Model the fold of this input.
Amino acid sequence: MINRKVYIYGIMPKIWGIMDRNLALDFVRATEAAAISSALWMGKGKEKEADHAAVEAMRKAFNIIDIDGTIVIGEGERDEAPMLYIGEKVGTGKGLKLDIAVDPLEGTTITARGDPNAMSVFAAAPAQGLLNAPDTYMDKIAVGPKCVGAIDLDATVEHNLKAVAECLDKPIDEVTAIILDRDRHKDTIEKIRKCGSRIRLIRDGDIAGALAPAIDDSGIDILFGIGGAPEGVIAAVALQCLGGEIQGRLKPRNTEEIERAKKMGISDINKKLIMRDLVKSDEAMFSATGVTDGTILRGVRFVSHGARTHSIVMRAKTKTVRFIEARHVFEHFPDY
Done:
């Protein structure tokens, strides 16, 4: 077990009118547990081991939270993932009925390499409040609060870069786009460079990349590119809390993924998904804990007999954003 001394600036308000501050901290504890467990594998080249450690720790943390939760974004289908699979029930079964979206380790390859921007991520909304997205790809564009309403997934790269530049009152050659470093993005990268804009290429970290334009001092103005659809839903919750915007469109790789999406209730595969499609409730919440150092969060620091974590917890309705620094003391280090 762990004794925690958590430092929080301000007092956490009641969540959704009936959830108290302790439940909010329970969610953060879940991402903390997953982050610490996976961080033990940082840089060791063991992706599966790091991911498994995160999943195990988060699931154990969920088991003691008084919620009636259902995983709608998780580690995969029941036959593909032994824990935190889509449709799995989490919590004690007492309390609010919630849709839960999790990525216990957002950036397995990042963690295995010791690269930046790995996080443990959690999002929740009242039942039926989140899009039940299949495990496929999604084409995305995301911006921060100052650029809401100015972008369009169906517009050209040049149009969106000029719109962002105008909203931010700076020349287009000072606009910085973030995009996954993938062969499928060669054309988009070429178009961004042709406009004279700056680019930050990232190996992984789809969620962190989408959040970056809405974080002050991140140096990022817009996200382009195709990443995971489940990550798009989770990012939408965070951007709703931050006042930003994301648009997406599913990019299934085969007919099997198309059929899976239809079974999940998505009838129009080609529909442009806006914020309200991805997050259907204003009563949503997001929390994340850094595993490795990144644009938003510092990674786990292991100290004598314990660890230090850096987390963010946000509420959509009030746009409240809080950063939490915690020191965890292990009674039997490193058995977390």
Observations:
- The mean pLDDT is 89.
- The chain has two domains: 2-129+283-330, 137-278.
- Residues 157 and 188 are 7 Å apart (CA to CA).
- The first helix runs from residue 21 to 39.
